[in-house]
Design a protein that fits this description.
CATH class: Mainly Alpha
Largest sheet: none
Number of domains: 1
Structural class: mainly alpha
Helix content: over 70%
CATH architecture: Orthogonal Bundle
Distance between the termini: 41 Å
CATH superfamily: Homeodomain-like
Radius of gyration: 13 Å
Length: 68
């Protein structure tokens, strides 16, 4: 049903949500990348880093540093 409404699978929708939340946290808090990964529910920060880089073409740390 979600795919019919949005054109995205549930997994794609969740990944996009996590990336948007991560971007918000990376730019507005002093939390580390690992802390953000855990806060978003990732068991392993490496999984978060891999997903973030796949979606944004930069690592979370690179993204965070681009705002400092």
């Amino acid at each position: 049903m979600l795919k019919n409404l949005t054109g995205q699978t549930t997994q794609q929708h969740l990944h996009n949500y996590f990336i948007e939340q991560a971007k918000e946290l990376l730019t507005t808090t002093k939390l580390s990348v690992n802390e953000i990964a855990y806060q978003l529910g990732f068991e392993y920060p490496q999984s978060f880093n891999k997903l973030f880089k796949k979606k944004t073409l930069m690592t979370p740390l690179q993204f965070k540093q681009s705002f400092n």
